[in-house]
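Collaborator request, handled under Task 6.
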Amino acid sequence: MSDELHYLTATELARLIRSRQVSAVEVLQAHLDRIEQVNPQVNAIVTLVAERAIEAAKAADAALSKGGEAGEGRIGALHGVPVAHKDLVDTAGIRTTYGSPLFADNVPEQDAVIIQRLRAAGAVTVGKTNTPEFGTGSHTVNEVFGATRNPYDLSKSAGGSSGGAAAALAAGLVPLADGSDMGGSLRNPASFCNVVGLRPTPGRVPSPSETAAWYTLSVSGPMARTVEDATLLFGAIAGFDRRSPYSIKEVFAPEPEQGVAGLRVAWSPDLGGLPVDVRTAAVTATAPGVFERLGAHVEQVELDLTDAEDAFRTYRAWYYLLSHGDKTGLGPNTAWNVEQGRKVTGADLVRAEVARSRLYQRMAVFFDTYDVLIAPVSQVPPFPVEHPHVSEINGQELPDYLTWMRSAYWISVLHSPAASVPAGFTEDGLPVGVQIIGRPFEDARVLRVARAFEEATGHGLRRPPL
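Structure tokens returned to the collaborator:
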């Protein structure tokens, strides 16, 4: 059974562990074996804490043998389930580099809130997943650990910045992983690696900060191989925290309804004129028909999200200056973002705030008519791992390394929950995801729609040829 455990869902693993049909140690060992076998090919998990994980798994089994007593023996929703953490998030006693040589030997003394919640839910930490320096960009490569490769084609990028998490999931190294998303970092790698990533409504998963407490473009969220597993993980990490000023008090709960029959679905093949690679477009164009067959009312729409461009770039630049402006020795992408931040003026911030507010109100009217919007996640399929970024789409040259990510980062500005769900494969076998975007605060609706699409297509069941 050990050979099969690494591709079971987290939901099933949690059930088997709780019912004592399999031990947490057995589950962990199956994943450690898989990591030893496959991780050298994909470079997804960059810091492994096997001995610590074994002790945690033994403790999980001991708690079950005692009947799940209170205190240390409390049985959480993720009891005994292995999980890996993005190398941007602080983990007490575990090396956390942020993908930067400046922090190559950094070992935090405290866990971030998301880690505290995962531990409280009983998850077993396996290690840290790769990320570009400070999560900068949608291609996972850095000077500390090198590049993460796509399990479906080792010559291609796994996306980013949660590329290590997505590759680890696709390769069967862990059943669950956390990630973060400013401009698509949960959604883009999920699309590239045929897994599920949810960018929650800002405030669902708190991220207390002493420098940017009110910054809403960057969020933490769940990644998994199935929507059900992503929902399970999301339930463990979502919740109010008074240290985060826009933290949502409402308790997250999945929608009781199933399917999408009767829902109003807007379809945008290019989010208002963005260039989309013909291979990606061919795959995502199949999504509207799936929703129609499921009983949804689908309508192709014309959108104008151009206000998102200035708003995102201005606030991103400001954030990078705020967060990293005092550092020297930064990599080229991070340094470029900091320099953009130095150019931001008060007038720029005024213009960005007006643009974002105007767009939010327009989309509020839009979502009076539609329940969800579906669109491409990424404008391109996975690209060669040696390329630093995408420089052209369909022959159209792009001005900088950010431009190819517009289909994801324009959505970040909307304050909306958005999920990436496997939508199919290009003719040469590269994964492509569809983006499901909902009204702000309707994360449960987005997950419901994502699950219906997933179950109707089964694309997520296709495993990489490792």
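The cover message to the collaborator said: "Confidence is low (pLDDT under 50) at residues 69-73. The chain has 15 helices and 17 strands. Please let us know whether this matches your experimental observations."
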